[in-house]
Amino acid sequence: MKYSSKSTFRWALPIMLACFLVVLLSNNVVFASHKIFIHLQSESAVNVQTVHRTGYHFQPEKHWINDPNAPMYFNGVYHLFYQYNPNGSVWGNIVWAHSVSKDLINWINLEPAIYPSKPFDQFGAWSGSATILPGNKPIILYTGIIDANKTQVQNYAVPANLSDPYLREWIKPDNNPLIVPDISINKTQFRDPTTAWMGRDGHWRIVMGSLRKRRGLAIMYRSKDFMKWVKAKHPLHSTSGTGNWECPDFFPVSVQGTNGLDQYGEEHKYVLKNSMDLTRFEYYTIGKYDTKKDRYIPDTGSVDSWKGLRLDYGNFYASKSFYDPSKKRRVIWGWANESDIQPDDDIAKGWAGIQLIPRKVWLDPSGKQLVQWPVEELDALRTQKVQLSNKKLNSGEKVEVKGITPAQADVEVTFSFSSLDKAETFDPSWADLYAQDVCALKGSNVQGGLGPFGLATLATENLEENTPVFFRVFKAQQNYKVLLCSDATRSTLKYNETMYKPSFAGYVDVDLTDKKLSLRSLIDNSVVESFGAGGKTCITSRVYPTLAINDKAHLFAFNNGTEPITIETLDAWSMEKAKIDY
């Protein structure tokens, strides 16, 4: 991953290293260059502030992190490699940090696996992936920066000692780089190699993200021996008007059940995910893989543009998936940046960025989208369970969830309603808007018919500060539209003109025949990860309350619609801290 185009999201830090024009396009998509704070890159943390630090999300002891590069499972151990600045709390001095775990939740930090140190990566060691080769031999592919012009090449590294259960030391052989961009490739937009897969012809394949004019590309290379790579005549896939593709991910999903796959046959469905450099969001399509032509073809109806499906409709980027053979599942992992403050404040607090909770991912029975759910190992941190059931909420009512630690909690709730008759009419003019634009118009305090109802997280007692996560049901011409919002506009009383407090939102494709909607929210001091309708729509918000912190935080269930809502079941737990051995 390249920091200058993704270390801050499209809303953050408008002051540039040099003066670049920011162009505002339709639908609130912003093209922007991002500032690199060279003078701050090696300013080490003096103190690490604990306010807003997470309790059970992964983050190092201090300083800046970004992409989860190459998660993998090897010989009973989960490995997380990630981009890290060992010297400061802004992007720079990036190394491949390395941590290991037995359960994806509690971690041991090791020495970094890869440092920029040789001609093929002396100007940077950026994102990549891990592959397990025949003979049970792991190998890392990563993007190296070879000059001040940001020319990008693809390198590899291998463990120094396969008998070491933690694979602490990695070697970068001198026959690097393996892949150098030819004249047809934009050499400064050619990065983030995927996990390799083997075709039926016995040849390996990988994909890199790139750009030609405004067309995003997934450039494919093939190899017989993993050392000599040849570019395919055509990309695996490309889409016009989407800009540069980063952190591509391409993997099979089963058409039945929730188990993951690691075999690339034509009988499966496929997912192509890309992180979009221009919008700061991730998009994916579901489709078919023609193994003879090495072409990916999105299904009819799988929107192949910025209007398409997202893994997460909030602060979630540079995700990477891996197959976990120990539990026959595919796990995906994303990164959330800070969105609150100026870099000087990041330095003052001594850290920036978190890795989100790893999620199991599978194909919805409809075949139209993915479903995501926090890995089951997270449940081991639950404690102090409280429950509500059959609690009716009339219009304007709320109920506090007591007996847990609201600033660090896990909540699962199912809402029901007796009728859809009061659902508001969906304005046809909204069809051209993104879901978050509709949420901004129809916030949690705007009374509706069926909704808004949901959870007010990280809240003060009188809701001066709160981050509501809520549903609102609309009646469209031929069906109902369910909107899930995670609204940070009132998340903090702190005024900061650079703070981004969006109304993130996504539509939920759900059958309302049983007149029920479910929600799970993981609340962790400065992050709220929410999973609507069993994980069909996911939204992550980063928020920074000033009053609703630690034991001053509250949690409410509320209904601001005219239709009464019933909390059928609500289960909430305090969450213990994850153990991270620094």
TrEMBL record:
Residues 377-574 form the Glycosyl hydrolase family 32 C-terminal domain. The keyword Hydrolase applies. PROSITE patterns: GLYCOSYL_HYDROL_F32 (PS00609). Keywords: Glycosidase, Hydrolase. Residues 57-374 form the Glycosyl hydrolase family 32 N-terminal domain. InterPro entries: ConA-like_dom_sf (IPR013320), Fructan_Metab_Enzymes (IPR050551), Glyco_hydro_32 (IPR001362), Glyco_hydro_32_AS (IPR018053), Glyco_hydro_32_C (IPR013189), Glyco_hydro_32_N (IPR013148), Glyco_hydro_beta-prop_sf (IPR023296). It comes from the Eukaryota. Pfam families: Glyco_hydro_32C, Glyco_hydro_32N. Belongs to the glycosyl hydrolase 32 family. This is Invertase.
